[in-house]
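Z., the sequence and structure:
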Amino acid sequence: MTEFGYWLSSEEHPPLDLVRDARRAEDAGFEFAMVSDHFHPWIDAQGHSPFVWAVIGGIAATTERIRLGTGVTCPTIRIHPVILAQAAATAAAMLKGRFFFGLGSGENLNEHVTGARWPAPDERLELLEEAIEVLRLLWQGGEQTHRGKHYTVDHARLYTLPDEPIPIAVAAAKPLAAELAGRLGDALVNTVPDPEIVKRYHSAGGAGPRYGQVQLCWAEDEQEARETVFRLWRHSGLGGTVNQELPRPSDFEAAAETVTIEQATEHAPCGPDPDAVVEAVRTWEAAGFDHIALHQVGPDQDGFFRFWERELRPRLAPTR
């Protein structure tokens, strides 16, 4: 049965709003939430990008039931995996079995800020694989040393650990990443409902949850919703590998100058029609995804929660 989650868009909202909305999602019956982990927003119009680990602490202190994962963290360049091992262990200890660690190979947008070289795609996967090794080594407890190709851990010990192992969900948009997710991860994450990625994940041994995202914009007026998506997520109409390669929000804005409102909203249901959202959800389910997070674009989260409770949840309940 499909489980439904709520997407906390760090690029669009200040930290206390994210904490408030996570609690609201729990009260509204969502099973899980995912919070994006960025240093920069994609474009300036989004306007925010708080430090995700502080936000997670606030969510841990104000929720009781909802599961929470990062969507997703890059553990390879901007922050050493030793530090992220500690951050995730603390988050998991605070959330008491409700935390899962979403990991991916990252975007230049966030990782270039320390001046490090942005690696090629195959190198990024190699870094991610070793970072996962480091994370799990430290989560074993005790004093640990690791001398690998990319990372060194020198007699490090995490003293605050959760009672249960931390699940790792690996983001995969390409076949080699899906294979890595199947070999090393406990779950799969994607933002495109691609059945071939799910098949590759399974063929590599993956048997965990498959997390997807439906981006939408509820509003009473469809055109208003379309304009909101265009204003805040115009760059989502870009194809290829642009999202991984561009370094600054201003570069995304420049690259998206020719994107039309039709292209930006092609895959995002807009307006008050619940059936359009249900259709999008069914597409993800048909592709093999069983955990689907709903991302309401824009500031009107209260309107979305009413829409979820009155219109969406009753229609989606039979698949739960």
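The chain has one domain: 3-218+272-319. Residues 172 and 235 are 20 Å apart (CA to CA).

Let me know what you think.
H.
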